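Researcher: I've been going back and forth with a colleague about how SS18-like protein 2 might be arranged in three dimensions. Neither of us has a model we trust, so I'd like an independent prediction. The organism is Echinops telfairi, in case that matters for your notes. Sequence below.
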Amino acid sequence: MSVAFVPNWLRGKAEVNQETIQRLLEENDQLIRCIVEYQNKGRANECVQYQHVLHRNLIYLATIADASPSSTPKPLE
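Model: Here is an independent structure prediction for SS18-like protein 2. You can compare it with whatever you and your colleague have in mind.
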């Protein structure tokens, strides 16, 4: 099960750390490989569930990135 699945009673209370982010990135890597494999075998319909999990993980990671304080990049000269 995806690490992005969090019970309602825990939402907003979990601390996001580098280990969680790394696990999500590794899971996304496996999901992408699985999706490509199914598509290459002509079984695109069977990879929809993996695409949903990948999408949820990407949205979760984007939300973390948006909420994180970031340093503004210096303009290139």
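Researcher: What would you highlight for our discussion?
Model: I'd start with this: Residues 18-40 form the longest helix (23 residues). After that, consider the following. Helices lie at 18-40, 48-67.
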